[in-house]
């Protein structure tokens, strides 16, 4: 099989063959596949009847020239003379690829089922892999199943009480359930785990276009059913899922895990095991504190904090695609800037046509996040605009100093908004003054909000860095710096404030404890967390030598 990149077709040619609604949604139809096939065989100078199989694996949009937008494709095919095609005529966009080999080894025999703590992407995919390989686990999730969880979150957004055990951060599917469902990742994938994750999502009801879009997403309105379907497969293969069940303590003897103590609706109980996959997510702060008390080795790590910004989606679309913005999938953006002081400021978790949500998980503390549905058809685009902070910024000798720094910001946001999301116009943020009115741009939020001065929530150097980045971002995206753009805060949960150290066998200093995913500091998003879940499950099943990259 060979892979060919940079198969380019002008957008107007695609438009002649594709229905407008399919083009808008990014769906790759048979007429478009035929266009790509013909362009591929032409570029390779081969006859169509010599091709045995053909698949489009990536489609992206090159809109650098707004009047001449190009669709660019990566394909894989098998055909006659593959070796000659890879070596001949100086082609640099053609290479040989090998199909992903499935694991053939049998899992180790275990006295007790492995335990997976957490049902976010890392925990879900670790549990699914274990179950599929004949080693069904026991899965603990401190929050509720996805249906009950959505009811609790909706009630909170409508003014009800926060449930510290089941909210936007905790519950089936993890924090990603209330997000855009973005599946792009910067993690290199020589093992094929990325593709395996995407294929699994499709098997469980995700839209097929996530297999080839450059920036795939599922949408919060579809993620729930996908997550539930994965859980049902785990159960069908003999796994056990315990909702509303919180890890209280690891049971350790002679430096090895022998079980766990957990709190469930039936009260406290102990479960024996010799392997625990710890996939709790980046907001399980009480778990971090317990691990520290039990001597699990952790390190502070850098993360990022800042605000959410909202702009009209039409503005972003016109900036990115010109007059063609209405015909193409909802536009996104990615922005970076380095201030004169050397601070890195960048956009993070951009949600086209989405909403800003109250994502709090602790009483008296407030944090925001972004969320989009599958259609991405909201009036506003929103993105976190954040600044990298390191242990030098949050200080102290405690390994959890970064977590305490996050808490202080969230307490300030709660006070600033009096329990509601604090909001202001960008012009007022830059001038460091509270907003008293809104302009043309209206907030699109889940949860109550109030006008305030979000700048006061942040340390001065962080607020100054964001304000200094706005002119640079406005040069990249004209209109980004409009004074009535919406700023809300605080965005403080971009990634885990700690890394739970693991060795070449992916175990912590406590043998049998496998730190996993975003909360453990080895991932940064749905796909990379799911990939890490697969990787750790393989280690539990068979043992594994550490690969070159163990984190993002």
Q: What do you see in this structure?
A:
The chain is an alpha/beta fold and 552 residues long. 30% of the residues lie in helices and 24% in strands. The strands form six sheets. The chain has a seven-stranded mixed beta sheet with strand order 14-15-18-13-22-19-21. Strands 7-6-5-11-24 form a five-stranded parallel beta sheet, with helices on one face. It has a four-stranded antiparallel beta sheet with strand order 2-3-1-4. The longest helix has 17 residues, at 220-236. It is globular. Mean pLDDT is 93; it is low at 545-552.
Explain briefly what this protein structure is:
The protein has 552 residues and is an alpha/beta fold. It is 30% helix and 24% strand.
Beta-strand content bin:
15-25%
Largest sheet: 7 strands, mixed
End-to-end separation in angstroms reads 29 Å
Q: Low-confidence spans: pLDDT under 50, at least 5 residues?
A: 545-552
Q: Enumerate how many helices there are, as a single number.
A: 15
Query: Which range best describes the helical content: under 10%, 10-25%, 25-40%, 40-55%, 55-70% or over 70%?
Result: 25-40%
Question: How many E strands?
Answer: 24
Inertia-based shape: globular
- Mean pLDDT, nearest integer? 93
Topology of helices and strands:
Layout: E1 2-10, H1 11-15, H2 20-25, H3 30-44, E2 51-62, E3 70-79, H4 82-87, E4 94-96, E5 115-117, H5 121-132, E6 138-140, H6 146-157, H7 193-203, H8 220-236, E7 240-242, E8 246-253, E9 256-264, E10 267-272, E11 276-278, H9 285-293, E12 298-300, E13 303-312, H10 313-321, E14 336-338, E15 344-351, E16 355-358, E17 368-371, E18 380-389, H11 391-394, H12 401-417, E19 421-425, H13 426-431, E20 445-446, E21 449-451, H14 460-476, E22 486-491, E23 498-500, E24 513-515, H15 526-542
């Amino acid at each position: 099989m060979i892979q060919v990149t940079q198969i380019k077709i002008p957008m107007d040619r695609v438009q002649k063959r594709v229905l407008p609604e399919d083009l808008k949604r990014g769906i790759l139809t048979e007429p478009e596949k035929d266009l790509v096939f013909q362009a591929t065989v032409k570029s390779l100078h081969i006859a169509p009847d010599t091709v045995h199989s053909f698949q489009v694996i990536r489609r992206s949009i090159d809109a650098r020239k707004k009047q001449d937008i190009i669709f660019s494709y990566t394909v894989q095919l098998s055909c006659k003379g593959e070796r000659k095609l890879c070596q001949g005529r100086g082609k640099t966009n053609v290479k040989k690829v090998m199909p992903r080999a499935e694991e053939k080894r049998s899992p180790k025999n275990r006295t007790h089922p492995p335990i997976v703590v957490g049902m976010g992407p890392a925990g879900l995919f670790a549990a699914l892999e274990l179950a599929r390989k004949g080693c069904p686990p026991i899965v603990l999730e401190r929050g509720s199943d996805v249906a009950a969880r959505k009811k609790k979150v909706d009630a909170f957004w409508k003014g009800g009480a926060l449930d510290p055990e089941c909210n936007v951060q905790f519950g089936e599917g993890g924090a990603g359930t209330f997000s855009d469902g973005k599946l792009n990742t910067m993690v290199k994938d020589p093992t094929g785990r990325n593709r395996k994750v995407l294929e699994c999502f499709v098997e469980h009801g995700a839209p097929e276009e996530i297999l080839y879009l450059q920036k795939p997403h599922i949408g919060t309105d579809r993620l729930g059913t996908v997550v539930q379907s994965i859980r049902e497969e785990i159960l069908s293969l003999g796994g056990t899922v315990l909702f509303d069940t919180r890890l209280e303590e690891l049971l350790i003897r002679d430096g090895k895990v022998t079980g766990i103590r957990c709190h469930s609706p039936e009260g406290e109980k102990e479960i024996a095991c010799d392997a625990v996959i710890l996939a709790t997510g980046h907001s399980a702060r009480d778990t971090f504190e317990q691990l520290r008390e039990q001597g699990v080795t952790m390190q502070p790590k850098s993360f990022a904090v800042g605000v959410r910004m909202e702009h009209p989606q039409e503005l972003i679309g016109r900036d990115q695609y010109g007059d063609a913005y209405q015909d193409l999938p909802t536009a996104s953006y990615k922005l970076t800037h380095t201030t004169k002081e050397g601070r890195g400021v960048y956009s993070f978790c951009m949600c086209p046509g989405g909403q800003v949500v109250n994502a709090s998980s602790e009483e008296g503390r407030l944090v925001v996040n972004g969320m989009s549905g599958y259609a991405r058809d909201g009036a506003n685009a929103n993105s976190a605009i954040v600044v990298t902070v390191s242990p030098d910024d949050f200080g102290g000798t405690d390994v959890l100093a970064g977590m305490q720094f996050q808490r202080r910001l969230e307490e300030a946001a709660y006070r600033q908004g009096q329990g509601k999301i604090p909001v202001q116009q960008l012009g007022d943020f830059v001038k460091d003054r509270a907003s008293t009115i809104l302009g043309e741009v209206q907030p699109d939020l889940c949860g109550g909000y109030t006008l305030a001065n979000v700048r006061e929530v942040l340390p001065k150097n962080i607020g100054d860095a964001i304000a200094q980045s706005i002119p640079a971002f406005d040069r990249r995206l004209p209109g980004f710096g409009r004074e009535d753009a919406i700023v809300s805060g605080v965005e403080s949960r971009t990634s885990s404030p700690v890394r739970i150290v693991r060795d070449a066998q992916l175990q912590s200093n406590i043998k049998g404890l496998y730190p996993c995913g975003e909360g453990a500091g080895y991932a940064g998003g749905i796909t990379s967390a799911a990939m890490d879940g697969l990787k750790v499950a393989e280690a539990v099943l068979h043992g594994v030598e550490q690969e070159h990259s163990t984190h993002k």
